[in-house]
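Minutes, structural biology subgroup

Action item carried over from last meeting: produce the structure token record for Pyruvate kinase (Tessaracoccus flavus). EB confirmed the sequence was re-checked against the source entry. Recorded below for completeness.
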Amino acid sequence: MTEGFTRASSGIDGLDRIVDGLRLGDNVVWQVDSVDDYRLVAAPFVARAREEGRRLIYVRYGAHEPVVDESPDIEVVTVEPGFGFEAFATGVHQLIAERGRQAYYVFDCLTDLMSEWHSDLAVLNFFEVTCPFLYELDTVAYFPLVRGEHSYTTIAGIRSTTQLLLDLYSVDGNLYVHPLKVWGRHSPTMFFPHEIAGDEVRPITSSAASSQLFARISGTMDPPDHWQTLVQAGRDALRSGNPGDQAAAKRLLTEMLIGGEGRMVELADQYLSLTDLVDTASREIGTGFIGGKSVGMLVARAILARGRDERFRTRMEAHDSYFLGSDLFYSYVVANGWWRLWMEQKTPDGYFDAGARLHEKLSSGKFPPAVREQFIRMLEYFGQSPIIVRSSSLLEDNFGNAFAGKYESIFCAGQGSPEDRYQRFEDAVRAVYASAMSQEALAYRRNRGLSHLDEQMAVLVQRVSGDHHGDLFFPHAGGVGNSSNLYVWERGIDMDAGMLRIVFGLGTRAVDRTHEDYARIVTLDRPTRRPSVEEGKERRFSQHFVDVISLTDNALVTVPLGSLVSGQAGDPNGDIGADWSLFLSPDEGAKRRLRELGRTTTTPQVICDLQGLLGSTDFGDLMRGVLATLSAAYNYPVDIEFTVNLGPDGDYRFNLVQCRPLQTRGLGKAVRMPELTDPADCLFSAGGNFMGGNVRLPLDAVVYVRPGRYLGLGHQDRYAVARLVGEATRALKGRGVMAIGPGRWGTTTPSLGVPVSYSEIAAADALIEYTYPDGDFRPDLSYGSHFFQEIVEGETFYAAIFGGQPGVVFNHERLTDQPNRILDLVPGATATLADVVHVVYPANLVLYSDVVSQRVICA
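Output recorded by EB:
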């Protein structure tokens, strides 16, 4: 391209001489005292562009009066900033891409974006992703911003990104321009202030004239960040005691931290006080929304604090969480140069492919120095206390979408040098950020019709609840609770009383389907009720391992429960600062078997069932009240995560660390159950052990994993069976599909069942687990686990068939006697695997369930 074609004009000849002309690719940022001043320099730029026949676009988004007068040869495009940063930045990006090369642009005032976003950081992010794209396309673009309204950090970022940064002043009716940056050009007087008089621009070179001018316009203080200014206004409103000021500040902070609409915003507005919001904003790093998990935790705690039961306030631990705002996530993407890839991921073709590349990159980026300094200050606050870094995306834990287990949560044990602790924390944040682009998270969002929505990743940093026990750190108990007991195994259980899934130690073992381990299921209408377990196998189906934080290993580890119990007399790790009898009960079955064998042992024969905690304290009654209070406030069933810590006197405290709506569809209308005169007339029939309410579900296909043949497979082939089940189920999507398998669906351990991910069998309308004694396969819904959440959220019917129990029938030959259609669905399946996964298209098969009679029949 020749020199003549690379040149452009500001429309002011004298200014062109001072800055050696504009170049194609230049972004020109004007710092002004008012938009009226900006019009004085935008008008000649527009006029010259029209004279030269340039394609001219005016990008309109400000609340101020238009900068450019309408004309047939000027295209005016309005882009709405109120839908958030990503939607706005994407809209402008698409606009620029469609207009192509060498277009001329006039933008509205950047400062006006803060009235919508309240964030200097977001304004800087927008400029940093837009300016380079304009440069690449050889455009010339004018941007104004109001002097004194942006922090030095924002101005520094804009200065480093733009090609020209010019100060414009109006003093005593005279107009002055002071170039601060002119990229790639220099002259002896370029960076002096200049007076503009028509087309003439005269440098002010004398020291006397310069000092006189700058004395009139000087301002040396760093303007406060706009976000912090609004937070300070909230503090001031609190101190003022003026109800009107407080109400206005509360509305604004709610909009800034939580959002502008939706049921969770309504709950936050109802229960969070101005003090709550100011405290939250004071503990936020970066700016923007704090995300769904943080909002759920704060709102739930506020609901309980206002509850009628005084025990909620006296027994609930305080929290001192920190929040990484959602704007920080975008800053991380922008600062590392990944915004173009982020845009590509939003396209149908790039959704998974670009997402995979982003997933890899997000785990290895760098944070800006200012952010690193705030991270350091936060870690100095927590010191060597263990913390957990948790995802808190915008869509997470909301009504309709729980995202259970889709995003990462990382424990930081808090040990080592400050440098080591900082590196581990930064790695944890990167891992949470990267999880936003994991294959499973992307599939979840697409399956639920969320792939087009803005899904920023905020982060919740919580102090881990618990205490030091020798070299280990853990709470005495933790788990999950649901206000609606959807899994009833016997008549008489009150579904509305709720249920807990609780373990000794960290509650991580309650939210994952763990290897050969079982949490205690608690029905809150009668907390001491024990789940139905075959006599003599109580210990087999109880907890055997404990998740703890090892201060020596500086990591989350799993230890045998027996190692803590046997060491309680001398090992400091066994001294838990509480009565072990609250968590352990004598294993009478084991004692009886030892007596029958004539053997003695010094090893305690105990079962971890938390029966003492449930029977000798009011903990069960308290948690029933907690769940009922939260559910009533939400006007919806809820799901919580909690911890429990006890003192030597047996007094306890609980900590509410998460709360979200439980995505249940309710009981449904009553169903007329079929009458069976002969047990052979049905595929299966059982009492209790199902969830999904009352159903009458016609079935077009059944995917059945044959247990004996599955048992004969090696470890890797069992994983291959899971993949084949997924392929078959997806191929049947849209039809009435039931999947039946031995042991646990969704386990990570093939010896316990079929290790499918939920996304693989999400197309199934019903999931059935059944016992197979030869392989020790046993159903376990893992109530409250992430897999459970997905079953509930997906409105998938679930039933467990415990063979050998009274009234249980499973006529599997009604499936195996029919032709296997697996190769019709998955032609590439190997003969070995096709022999294990049996697919049939039954005629007139219907699944029935009735909550009142606690019967489930498939006939």
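Discussion: The domain at 3-217 is CATH 3.40.50.300 (Rossmann fold).
Next step: EB to file the record with the rest of the batch.
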